[in-house]
TrEMBL record:
<dbReference type="InterPro" id="IPR024567">
    <property type="entry name" value="RNase_HII/HIII_dom"/>
</dbReference>
<dbReference type="GO" id="GO:0003723">
    <property type="term" value="F:RNA binding"/>
</dbReference>
<dbReference type="GO" id="GO:0006298">
    <property type="term" value="P:mismatch repair"/>
</dbReference>
<dbReference type="InterPro" id="IPR001352">
    <property type="entry name" value="RNase_HII/HIII"/>
</dbReference>
<feature type="binding site">
    <location>
        <position position="132"/>
    </location>
    <ligand>
        <name>a divalent metal cation</name>
    </ligand>
</feature>
<feature type="binding site">
    <location>
        <position position="24"/>
    </location>
    <ligand>
        <name>a divalent metal cation</name>
    </ligand>
</feature>
<dbReference type="InterPro" id="IPR036397">
    <property type="entry name" value="RNaseH_sf"/>
</dbReference>
<comment type="similarity">
    <text>Belongs to the RNase HII family. Eukaryotic subfamily.</text>
</comment>
<keyword id="KW-0378">Hydrolase</keyword>
<dbReference type="GO" id="GO:0046872">
    <property type="term" value="F:metal ion binding"/>
</dbReference>
<feature type="domain" description="RNase H type-2">
    <location>
        <begin position="18"/>
        <end position="246"/>
    </location>
</feature>
<dbReference type="GO" id="GO:0032299">
    <property type="term" value="C:ribonuclease H2 complex"/>
</dbReference>
<comment type="function">
    <text>Endonuclease that specifically degrades the RNA of RNA-DNA hybrids.</text>
</comment>
<keyword id="KW-0540">Nuclease</keyword>
<protein>
    <recommendedName>
        <fullName>Ribonuclease</fullName>
        <ecNumber>3.1.26.4</ecNumber>
    </recommendedName>
</protein>
<dbReference type="GO" id="GO:0043137">
    <property type="term" value="P:DNA replication, removal of RNA primer"/>
</dbReference>
<dbReference type="GO" id="GO:0004523">
    <property type="term" value="F:RNA-DNA hybrid ribonuclease activity"/>
</dbReference>
Amino acid sequence: MTIQLYMDTCDSVDKTQPFIMGIDEAGRGPVMGPMVYGSCWCPVSQQDALKKLKFDDSKKLSENAREKLFDVVLANSKIMGFQTVVSTPEHISQLMNRRTPVSLNVISHDSAIQMIESVLKKGINLQEVYLDTVGTPKTYQDKLYKLFPNIPKIVVSSKADSLYPIVSAASICAKVIRDSLVKNTTFDQLNLSESETPNLEFGSGYPSDPVTKKWLTDNGDKIFGFPNCIRFSWSTAVNAMKKQSCHVVWPPKNNAKPSKYFVPTSENIKNKRFQYFEQNSISRIDNEF
């Protein structure tokens, strides 16, 4: 499931003037919590005002500094708007565990595309879009140009959140929203007794974090695995389940291959009728003629 949160620019802002847009994400790598894509937009004429707000890459800022800058975004609807797309752990796992898996890069691209489309539908005259790269920058950039031929300038760059203030603002929105969602995670699915409280010491949520690994080891259910705040498609979660969960073996009957049970029934074999028809003496009409 994806969730959208946004704040539009004030109605007094002329949407026909040229606008600039920045896009970035937070939470791409963690095994725990959602991936949040954020975007900000403002009139091209307001770029100097945007620089004075002193946005920076969210990873370089403290939590307190990020929250203060997010308040700055909320207080400046006269010059900018923002939106986020939240991909839940369930949504990510569902797509990546399909028979034909959907890669995280594709999920990321789709989130960015969804936000660009959403802003265009508002009637905003997007003339420039800046994005932090996912995959090869040129390949991603060419893909966006094909989808949005009416946007004259699309720039996909590594470290875009450090290079372009509008992307820095988007990065802050994404990070603050994700942090809030992680903080408010409930662990009802851990099946704890009334006297027990969930262990909230889960670290950064990144697979390499020893605290996160320990949380996975201590909080997995032997039958059902982990609560829905965990990405089941991550190898860290898969390996933890392999170590601590019950193993189930389904031996084929009489050592027959499983494919045997999916072979269509021969036309010469008459299917047995439901008991309801036999008990009520109901027969097929075509048998009477």
